[in-house]
Each structure stands twice: as structure tokens, then as C-alpha cells.
Amino acid sequence: xxxxxxxxxxxxxxxxxxxxxxxxxxxxxxxxxxxxxxxxxxxxxxxxxxxxxxxxxxxxxxxxxxxxxxxxxxxxxxxxxxxxxxxxxxxxxxxxxxxxxxxxxxxxxxxxxxxxxxxxxxxxxxxxxxxxxxxxxxxxxxxxxxxxxxxxxxxxxxxxxxxxxxxxxxxxxxxxxxxxxxxxxxxxxxxxxx
Length: 194
Known about the structure:
Elements: H1 2-7, H2 12-24, H3 26-48, H4 52-60, H5 62-82, H6 90-93, H7 96-109, H8 113-124, H9 134-163, H10 168-191
Helix pairs in contact: 2-3, 2-9, 2-10, 3-7, 3-8, 3-9, 5-7, 5-10
């Protein structure tokens, strides 16, 4: 439930996942979601195993992470806004499934608020940083990954139902709307630095 609830709010990764599902198919959307789920599990491991050194290092460098993440979101948003509707071979040209996975993994990692969310949830439930409970922490991190992956599987499944009903003009509109939303999240990341 923790992984599902962290992944469920639709932010820039959700918009990107929806757009990739519509443009390149369910596999591309799911690969994108699994990249985010892996990053969630990484941050869940930091919070669950009580790796305070790593979490404090990430939090202390959150300005740089937001700067890099915001820049990447702006780049991705503008690229999405200007892109033509994808054809069948478009996913291969854009890096394919490994590229979809890698970009969302890195984008999710550049959000230090994710680790703060996990730390707060784990602390509130009394689950984080308990020494000697490595088996429980491992199960918790696995659960975070599976819960997050379940969200992305459900989202891409629901979105792929509509994929066949959207023509080239509809995909162009999806690209423009998605690009504008992703760029707006990038700009918000920059504004949060002020």
C-alpha cells in the first residue's frame, strides 16, 4: 500500500507514462512506470534500512537535484510538445524500453521529496531504521516496489484501452498537453529553488 500510495498521485512521471503508453504502447508506458517503481524502491530502501547518511546527503543536495530534474523535465516537456505523433517504430528510435525505463528512473531519483515522503511514512508507522530487522526491511522494500509497479500496471492498462481510439490528430493533442504539463512541472522545480 505504501508503494501504491506514493506512486498514485499523477505528477510529471504519471503524465510521461500516460503519454508514452498512448504514443508507443503499453510496454513503453509500463517500462517507464517500472523505472519509477525501481527509484521508489531505492528510496524506500534508504528509509527502510535507516541509511541516514545517504538520505541526508541527498537532502542536503536537493537544490542541485531539483535543478537537474527541473532542467530535464523542461527539456522533455518541450521535446514532447514539439514531437509529431509516434509511429510504430518510434519507440525504438527513442531508446526503446531501456530508454523509457532509464529516463523515468533518473527523473524519479532527482526528486528528493520522495525520500522525505518515505521517511515520514516509515517513521509514522514505526517501520524505518530498526536495527537488526533486515528481513523485515527487505520485505518492506519489496512491497514498496510491488505496490508501485501495481499502480503503473493499472495505469498503463487503463490508458492502453483508449490507445486504439486515438488518431494522429488526437495524439498530437496529447503530445501538446503532455509537453505543457511536463514543462510546467519543470518550471515548478525551478521555482521551488527560490
